[in-house]
Amino acid sequence: MACSSHSLNRVQDWLRVSPDPALTSSPLCPPTPPKSPAPTAPRPPSSSPSKRQRNDDDSLPGSSLSHTSSVVLSDRTTLTATGSVRRTLSPSRHLTKLRTARPSISLSPITMPPKPLPDDAMTRLGWLRTRLGSALKGGYIPGGLQDAIEQDPDFRLSLSMEPIDEEAFDHEDKRTLADFALVDTLQQVKRIFQGATLCTQFGRDENAWCFSVVWPLIELAIKLHGKGKWQSESVQSQSINPLYLPRVPDPSTPSKERYLFRKTDFCFSYSHLDPHFRALYSRLEESNAMQVSHTTDNFTSRAVLFSGIEVKPENGDQKEAELQMGIWMAASLRKKMELAEKARAGRDLNETQNPNTKIDDPSVTALLEPALTIIGNEHKIYYAYPSSINGDITILGPDEKFANISTRSVPGIFKLIIVYATILDYGYQEENENGQESEGGLWGGYLEKVFKEIARGIH
Asked: Is the separation of the CB atoms in 291 and 259 below 8 Å?
C-alpha cells in the first residue's frame, strides 16, 4: 500500500486542474514501473486522411468537437475528464431547430400533421396516395418477362427465397422477348439488382449506392414512363440560393441569424429536350425571367425542378437524410410560391385586392410535391407542401402505407419503377381528350399556368 499515498497525491493534483478544458494528458509515469520494460518504438504519423470537415455554411454555428484530458495512475488505470468544449449538433437537433427557423420547416409523421392541410393540398395528397396504392396492387411486371425472370440463373436463388406473386405480372401486356425494349428492361433491372447486391454485401459507400443503384433506377423509370418530359438531375454539388434557405439564431451573436444549408443528391427537371418545355424556357428567357428554380447553378437555376431524393448507404443516418431532403424541398417550394405570387400579381395588375385573400389563393395552397429518402435498399416517400403564405413548409412522412419497397428483390425493383412512374405522372399530366385538365396533375393543373403568366413578361 506504500504506493497508495503517491497515487492519491496525483489524483488530487489531477482534480485541481481538470476543470481547465485546455488540460493536456498528464506526463506522469506509472507509480510502479515494470522491472524490465520493453523498449517502445516511436509511433509513426498516421497515413489515413482526416474526415472532411463541414463548411460553416453546412451546419449551425456552435457545433464543436469534444476534447478529453487524462491522468495515468498505473499501467491499467487511467482517469479521463471530458472538457466542456464545442461539439457537433446531431441531425435530430437540427430538425428540431428547423421548426422555429424563419421560415420554418416541420417534418411530421403522416398520421400526425401539425395542423389540417389546405383543401387543395389534401386533394392532391389523396390523389397521389390512391394512385400509388393502385399501381402497387399488381400488374407492375410485363407478362412477357415472366418466363425469362423465373429461368434466369442470376435471379434463381433470390426467387427461391421470395417467389413473385402471380398478380404482379401484367398479362394484358402482350409483348414478347422479340421486343427489344422488353429485353433491355430486363437487362437494366438485372444490373440494378446486381449493383444493390454488391453494395449490400460489401458495405459500399453513398457514392456507390447513388450511381450503381439509384441513378440507373430513376433513369430506367424515366425511359419507360417519362414520355420524354423529364430529365434526371444530379444536384449533389449544387448550392441553394440563400433567399430560400431557413434562418436560425446564431449562438455566438443572439441578435443575428445565419442560414442552415444542406445539399441533396437527385431531383427531376421538366426537360429542355422536350419541344413543349423548350419553347416555354425560350419565352421565359425572352422575358428576362430565366431564374425559375432555387439553385445557383447556371443550368438547373433555369430549369423547373420537381421532387428531391437523398441517398444514404445501408445503416446511414435517416435523420440526416430527412434534414437534407427537407431543406431542399422547402427551398424548391418557396421559389415556386414566389413565382406563383408574381403570376398572380400579373393577373391582378389592374385590380385592387384585399391582401388577406392570399390565404385561400390556389397559388399558395395547391403546391404539394413528393420526395424520397433512400437508406441502402429502402425507399421512403414523403410529401411537402406550404403551410403558410410566409414560406413555412410542412413535410409529412415517411408514408408507412408504402414502407416495404426496396431494391433487395427483383419484384421490389419493378415496384419502385412503377412508384417513380406514378410520381412523374403526378408531376406532369396532359389534358384529357376533351381538353379538360386531368385531376391532380401538378403541371397541367397548376404550374403551367404560373409559368405561362411569368413568360408573358408583364411583371
From this structure: no
Looking at the domain assignment, is residue 271 inside a domain?
A: yes
pTM: 0.79
On whether the CB atoms of residues 339 and 292 are closer than 8 A, the answer is yes
Phi-psi region of 440 (alpha: psi -120 to 50; beta: other; left: phi over 0): left
Torsion of CA 201, 183, 137, 325, to 10 degrees: 50
Q: How many domains does the chain have?
A: 1
pLDDT at 355: 53
How far apart CA 272 and CA 279 sit, in angstroms, is 9
Residue 267, in any domain of the structure = yes
How far, CA to CA in Å, does 197 sit from each of 207, 221, 402, 406?
15, 20, 22, 12
Specify the amino acid at residue 428: Y
pLDDT score recorded for residue 174: 94
CB 365 within 8 A of CB 119: yes
pLDDT of residue 10: 67
Per the CB < 8 A criterion, the answer to whether 110 and 396 are in contact is: yes
User: Would strands 105-108 and 393-396 be described as parallel, antiparallel, or unpaired?
Assistant: parallel
In sequence order, which residues have a C-beta less than 8 Å from that of residue 327 and are 6 or more positions away?
98, 105, 240, 245, 246, 260, 261, 262, 264
Q: What is the DSSP letter of 360?
A: G
Q: Name residues of the chain where pLDDT drops below 70.
A: 1-88, 347-363, 430-440, 458-459
Q: Give, for 410, the enclosing helix (H) or strand (E).
A: helix 410-427
| 381: amino acid identity, one letter | I
Side-chain-side CA neighbours of 53 within 13 Å: the count stands at 8
Phi-psi region of 3 (alpha: psi -120 to 50; beta: other; left: phi over 0): alpha
CA distance 107 to 123: 20
Dump pLDDT digits (tens) for 75-99.
Answer: 555 555 554 445 567 888 889 889 9
Q: Which 3 state secondary structure label does DSSP give 370?
A: strand
Q: What does R_g of the chain's alpha carbons equal in angstroms?
A: 28
What domain range is 274 assigned to? 91-349+356-455
3 lies in a domain?
A: no
Max CA distance (Å), the chain: 100
Count CB atoms within 10 A of the CB of residue 406.
Answer: 18
Distances 58 to 170, 258, 263 between C-alpha atoms, Å = 46, 11, 8
pLDDT value at position 271?
Answer: 98
Residue in the structure block whose three cell numbers are 510502479: 32
Whether 95 is in a domain gets the answer yes
Quick one: pLDDT at residue 315?
93
Residue 11's pLDDT is what?
Answer: 60
